[in-house]
Automatic annotation (TrEMBL), chains A, B:
It holds the Pfam family Peptidase_M32. It comes from Salipiger aestuarii. The keyword tRNA processing does not apply. This is Metal-dependent carboxypeptidase. It catalyses: Release of a C-terminal amino acid with broad specificity, except for -Pro.
Amino acid sequence: MTVYDDMMRHQRETGALAQVAGRLGWDQETVMPQGAGDQRAEEGAAMEAVLHARRTDPRIGAWLDAIDPATLDDEARAQIRHIRRSYDRAMRVPADLATALARLTSRSHQAWARARADDDVASFLPVLSEIVALKREEGAALAAGGDPYDAMLQDYEPGTSAAQLGAMFDALRPRLVALRQACLERPQPAPLTGRFDAKTQMALSRKLAGVFGYDFSRGRIDKAVHPFSSGSGDDVRITTRTSEIDPFNCAYTTIHEVGHATYEQAIRPAYRFTPLGEGVSMGVHESQSRIYENQLGRSRAFTAWLHGEMTEAFGDLGLDGPEAFYAAVNRLENGFIRTEADEVQYNLHVLLRFDLERALISGDLSVGDLEAAWNDRFAADFGFAVDRPSNGVLQDVHWSAGLFGYFATYTLGNVYAGCLHERLRDAVPDLDAQMAAGDLSAATGWLRGHVQQHGGLFEPREVITRAYGRAPDEGPLLAYLEAKFGALYGL
Amino acid sequence: MTVYDDMMRHQRETGALAQVAGRLGWDQETVMPQGAGDQRAEEGAAMEAVLHARRTDPRIGAWLDAIDPATLDDEARAQIRHIRRSYDRAMRVPADLATALARLTSRSHQAWARARADDDVASFLPVLSEIVALKREEGAALAAGGDPYDAMLQDYEPGTSAAQLGAMFDALRPRLVALRQACLERPQPAPLTGRFDAKTQMALSRKLAGVFGYDFSRGRIDKAVHPFSSGSGDDVRITTRTSEIDPFNCAYTTIHEVGHATYEQAIRPAYRFTPLGEGVSMGVHESQSRIYENQLGRSRAFTAWLHGEMTEAFGDLGLDGPEAFYAAVNRLENGFIRTEADEVQYNLHVLLRFDLERALISGDLSVGDLEAAWNDRFAADFGFAVDRPSNGVLQDVHWSAGLFGYFATYTLGNVYAGCLHERLRDAVPDLDAQMAAGDLSAATGWLRGHVQQHGGLFEPREVITRAYGRAPDEGPLLAYLEAKFGALYGL
C-alpha cells in the first residue's frame, strides 16, 4: 500500500458514510414517521460528528504532505486537488466558530420559519445579524487574506469569483428586464386549467424519467413537499410532487430532478465513494437539471410529444393543439416567488439575491436595511411592489441556513446550460425531430459523455469549457431566451 | 461532567449510530433499488467499522475501571452491567478471528442460499465446517475457561445456560410430541380457502396494529419478503407480507411484529440510545411477539372479533361461524418448515435445532453426520421423513450466518409468554370479554407496565420473574397448549 492508497481508503470509507448520511436525509423527507423528528436530529448529529472527525483527521494533512503529485496520473491528481481543498477548508475554520455556526443555523431555521409564517421581518433580523457576523468571520478565516465572499463561493462553485459572476450577471440583467417587460406587455397565452388525477401524474412522471434516461434499477421516485435528488452511484433517488390543478409542476419537477440524478448515475463507477464520484459543483449540477427541464423539456419539439402524452393520460386538455400547449408551458406571469418563476424571470430573482448578499458580507449593506433594499430592487426589476415579507425577503430558506454564495449557482447553471445547449444543437442536428418523437437519448447521451461521466475529474469551469469548446459566457443563454420568448410573444 | 457522564455520552452517540445502521437495514429490505446492493454492502461495512471502533474504544475500559458502581443508582448500575458485558465480549475475541468470521459468514450466506436452492447439502458442508470451527474458537475465547456454547448463548439471552434451557426443553419435548400426535390423529377442521385482496389485507393489518397498541406516529408498516421489526424509541418500523390465498399470514405476521415493535416503543424515553433503551434479550422480545400473536391473537375470544372484521372486509369466508373460524386459525398440519409451524409443533422444530447445534459445538456431532442426525430426529418427533434438504437441514439461514445460540430464544420466548399469560389472566379477569370486543388495551397495557417499559433495566430472567411472580418455567406453556388444543381437537 502506498500513502496514496491509504489516503484513498480513508476517503472511500468517508464517502460511504456520507452516502449513509444522505440516505438518512432522504428517509426524513419521504418515509420517516412524523413523531421521529427529535430522535432523528440526534442520529443525524451523530453521523455529522463522525464525518467531521474523519474529514479533519490530521492524518489527511500528513498524507497530503507525503505525496508528490508529479508521480500521479490525472485522476489521482484530481483526487488530491479535492481532498486538499476540503481539508484546508476544514482546518481554516476554528472549531469554536464551526460549532457556533452549527448551533446558530439550527436555531435560526426555526426563527426564519416562524417569521415567514407570521410575516414578521423584525423577529428574524437579530438572528440574521448573528448569522451574517459569524459568516463574515468564517469567510475571513477561509479567505486567509483574500476576499471573504469569494471564499464562500468556493463551497458551491470552486474556481469562481464574485467579480467573474458579477460581470456575467450584470450583462444578463438589463436584457432580462427588457425581455420580461416586453413579454408581459403582450397578450398572454391561455393557461392550462382543470383537475388532474395525482396517480396519473405520477405514472407520467415515471414515464418522463425513463425518457430522460433515469435508471430505475439504481433509483426510485417518491413524493416530497420540497422535491430533491439524493445519493450517488448506484442509489440515486428523486422526489417530485403533485398538484391537482397543475400537472406541469409534477412533470417539470421530475425532469429537473432527473437531470441532477442522471448526472450522479452517469459518473464513472471507478470513482464511487471518492471526491471524483459526485457532481463537481452546484453550478454544473444545475446546468444538467436546467438543460433537461428547460432547453430540452420546455422546447417546442418536446412539448409537441408531451402534449400527446398528456392528452392520452388526462383526456382533452382544453388547449388548442400542440402550439397552444407549448405556449401554456412557457407562459410568463407576474409573481413574487423565485421557485415558481419561469425561464425569463428566474434569473432576475437570483441576481437580486446575489447582489444583496454580496453587499451584506462586504458590509456595504446592513441587515437593518436589507428589506428596503430587497423591495427597491424588486420594484426596479419586476415593475411592481412586494406586498409582504413572505413574498419578499423572507421567502427563501438559504440565508437562515447560512448558505451565502449558493444562490449564484442557480443562474450560473442556466448560463452553463445555455452554452451546452448551443453545442448540443451542433452535435445533434436533428434534435428537434428526435424530441418530437419522445426520443431524448442522443441529447442525454451527449451530456453524459461530455459532462456527466467525468464527475469531479475536471474543475467546474473546465468541464463546461471542454464541452462548449471555449470559456462559458452568458451569450448563448441570452440568445436562446430572446429567440424563444421573442417568437412565443411575437416581439 | 463525571466519568460516568463521559461514558454515557459516548454510549448515546454509539446508540444513535446503531439506529442509523438499523435504518439502513430497513431501507435495504423495503425500498432500496435492486441495483444498489453492492454499493450498499460497502456503506453497511463502513457503518459497522465505525460502530466496532466505538464499541472497542479503550476509553470504555478506562471509564469502567474508574467508576465505583456503589456510588450509582439502579439504572446507572444496569447501564454499567450492559456496557461491561459488551466491552468484555469485544475484548475477548481476537481481531483476526472477528475479521475471519465476518468474511466467512458473508461468503457462507451465498453458499447456503445456492445449496438450498439446489438441494445440495454436500456443497454447503465444507463451509459449515469452517463456520463451526471458527465459532468454537470464538466460543472458547468468549468462555474464558467456561463452556463455549454457554458463552454463545449470552449474545442472545444473557444469564441463561444450556443446562437451564436443556432442562426446560427436555420437559417440553415428550408432551409436545404426544399432543401433536393426538391432534393429528383426530379429524381436522376445515381450512380457510379462497382468494383475498392484498390491499384489503394491508388495511386490516393497519387496523390490527392499532388494536394491539402500535403507535403509528412513531412507526410505519411496509411489506417485506421476510418480515421484521426494526428500530427503537420514536422510530420503530414493522413489515409484513401478503399471500393471496392466506390472509392469516398477513394478520398474524403483523400482530407478531407489533409485539416486537410495541416493546421498543414502550421503553422509557429517558433510556433512548443507551443500553437500557432496547429490548433486553431475544427471549424476552420473542415473549412479547408470541403472546401478542398466540395467547392473545389466536385466542377463541379474539378470533371471534377477528372473524367479524374479516367477514366485513372480505365478505363470506366460507366457514361456519366464529367457532369454525377459531378452529381454522389454529388447525395443525404436517409440515417440514419451522417458520410455517403452528403453536404446538413450532417448539419441536426449535428443540431439534438446539440439541443438534449444541452437539456440533461440543464436538459430539460432526458436520458430516449433521444431515442424518437431523433426519433421524425429525422422523422421531414428527413421525414422517424429511423429503429433501431444503425441507430439512438447509431450511434456516441461522447457521450459515454463524448464529449458534439463537434458536433457543424462540422457545424460551414461548415459555416466557406462557408465564406472562398466566399472570395476565389473573390481572385482567374479564380479558376474554374485552378481546371479544376487539379491546386489547388492558392486556397490552399490563405487558407494557410489567415488561416493556423496563427495556434493559433488569436481566432477562429477572424481568419475567418480576412479572410472573416467580422463576419462569415451562408449566404454564404446556398447560395452555394442552388445554387449548385438547379442547379444539376433542382430546
